[in-house]
């Protein structure tokens, strides 16, 4: 808000400044010029200033272009009301869009409006408090150890004509077993390099992740931006060490590769090797690669692992995330805990009476 360039008296200047401070504290001080700027300009500025992973930026830009801009692009930012935002969400629902898509569109609308709020172009964010339908979380699949090995075998031995130069892919079987016992994300597995695997295979360092954006592989930090070390069971470590010995000595070389020896593209691996093997292994068709990560969590918990250890191995940002995902697996340990506490109680009582 632009004030007068001069004041008749010092008292007038003081009164004007006091009003400005009061309006600011009440959240009603607006810059009228900014409030008339169209939503599209604010959206362009917001998109330019994003500091997110490339794949996330592509997703935001696509949602903004396809869903948000057609409705709000030319609207002055200060003219957008809660009713407008509510109608926007209702219209997306009437078109049958998925709950996740609607939630993403609402999120982007709110973030752009938040930029205008910070610049005093609007006095409140009209998208605040806007409810969207909650999508159902994809049900997790937990594999048994036997199923993990059956799946790994099916991936390593796809049906091939006798004339095919390669009949077996043992490294891909190892990849499946490694994912199920380490809990690494698909992008972290694909980005694993020779130099980040211990020479004896006993641990791996998770320092990178890779994702495919517009057909290009883009490497960056893991999802939670934190490096971590994951120790491996001895039997798996031996297999990892043997595979490491077969790879180039260059520490930057990919540990798992594409069939041609280049960088592994997860989308290709999933389509050509993993998904066809799910059916051949007799697993539920809905089984995804990410379910190997869920399986790793379940295997750790079944061995009595503390929730904090599970969180650190999986690379979750907080223990609350781990508890939300896998807390329901812990009640099965309640009986064991009760029996252990009973033994402690009996020991205390026996010690008192002896």
Automatic annotation (TrEMBL):
Lineage: superkingdom: Bacteria
Record keywords: DNA integration, DNA recombination, DNA-binding
GO aspect biological process, one term: DNA integration
Domain Tyr recombinase: 138-342
MF GO annotations: DNA binding
Annotated Core-binding (CB) domain residues: 37-117
Transmembrane residue ranges: none
Gene3D superfamilies cross-referenced by the UniProt entry: 1.10.150.130, Intergrase catalytic core (1.10.443.10)
InterPro entries reported in the protein's UniProt record: CB (IPR044068), DNA_brk_join_enz (IPR011010), Integrase-like_cat_sf (IPR013762), Integrase_catalytic (IPR002104), Integrase_recombinase_N (IPR010998), Integrase_SAM-like_N (IPR004107), Tyrosine_recombinase_XerCD (IPR050090)
Family: Belongs to the 'phage' integrase family.
Protein name, UniProt field: Tyrosine-type recombinase/integrase
Organism this protein belongs to: Actinomarinicola tropica
């Amino acid at each position: 808000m632009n004030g007068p360039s001069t004041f008749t008296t010092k008292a007038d200047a003081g009164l004007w400044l006091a009003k400005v401070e009061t309006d600011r504290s009440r959240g009603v001080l607006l810059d009228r010029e900014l409030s008339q700027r169209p939503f599209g300009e604010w959206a362009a500025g917001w998109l330019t200033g994003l500091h997110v992973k490339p794949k996330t930026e592509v997703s935001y830009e696509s949602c903004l272009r396809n869903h948000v801009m057609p409705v709000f692009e030319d609207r002055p930012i200060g003219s957008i009301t809660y009713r407008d935002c509510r109608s926007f969400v209702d219209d997306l629902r009437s078109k049958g869009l998925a709950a996740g898509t609607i939630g993403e569109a609402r999120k982007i609308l709110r973030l752009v409006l938040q930029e205008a709020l910070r610049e005093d172009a609007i006095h409140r964010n009209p998208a605040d408090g806007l409810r969207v339908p909650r999508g159902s979380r994809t049900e997790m699949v937990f594999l048994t150890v036997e199923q993990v090995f059956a799946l790994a075998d099916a991936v390593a031995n796809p049906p091939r004509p006798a004339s095919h130069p390669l009949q077996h892919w043992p490294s891909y079987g190892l990849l499946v077993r490694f994912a199920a016992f380490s809990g690494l994300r698909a992008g972290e597995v694909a980005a694993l390099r020779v130099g980040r695997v211990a020479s004896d295979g006993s641990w791996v360092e998770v320092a990178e992740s890779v994702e495919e954006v517009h057909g290009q592989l883009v490497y960056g930090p893991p999802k939670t931006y934190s490096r971590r070390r994951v120790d491996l069971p001895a039997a798996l470590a031996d297999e990892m060490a043997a595979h490491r010995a077969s790879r180039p000595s260059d520490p930057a070389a990919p540990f798992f590769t594409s069939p041609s020896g280049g960088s592994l593209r997860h989308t290709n691996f999933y389509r050509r090797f993993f998904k066809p093997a799910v059916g051949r292994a007799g697993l539920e068709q809905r089984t995804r690669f990410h379910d190997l990560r869920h399986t790793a969590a379940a295997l750790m918990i079944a061995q009595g692992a503390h929730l904090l250890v599970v969180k650190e191995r999986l690379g979750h940002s907080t223990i609350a995330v781990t508890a939300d995902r896998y807390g329901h697996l812990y009640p099965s340990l309640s009986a064991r805990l009760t029996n252990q506490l009973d033994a402690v109680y009996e020991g205390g009582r026996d010690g008192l009476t002896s």
